[in-house]
Design goal:
Regulates the transcription of the pyrimidine nucleotide (pyr) operon in response to exogenous pyrimidines. Also displays a weak uracil phosphoribosyltransferase activity which is not physiologically significant. The chain has about 180 residues and is an alpha/beta fold. About 30% of the residues lie in helices and about 30% in strands.
Amino acid sequence: MMEKEILNKHEIDNILVRLSFQIIEKIKDDTNFALVGIKRRGAILADRVASAIEKFKSLKPEVGYLDITLYRDDLTEIAEFPKLLGTDLNFDIKGKTIILIDDVIFTGRTVRAALDAIIDYGRPKKIIFVALIDRGHRELPIQPDFVGKYVPTNIEEKINVKLHELDGLDSVTIEKRG
């Protein structure tokens, strides 16, 4: 296996600032919004984007974290006893604009599961989807509203997002198998 870095800490930081500005522009004067990160790395990215929005807009957005484990369509295939990470939404999503954040979009199935999970908590006014990396290969008709970086991949390749809070460093690599 060969692994090649495609984003370093500085590049990830710059992308998150750009994505934050895109979100600010999209929501304009709407103050009834919240960020929801898909656990695990999407949750960390949601915290970072919230900090950037607070810095640039002087408005601290509410942040929630979504565990999509029980909404996965491959639940019976991933493990006999899947590990639940727990959802943490300490606000009413009804009528809010939800900014859904994840690290990588691939087939679209994770996002579909996240949409189902969100709807179980209420009916938001709108959901905007943000992904740090879009690697293509959709199996469902789901596209992010904002993407940090498009990384065309082969189906055999893997994108690894490492974030300091979990992995001790910030880096995105592409892993070529074989």
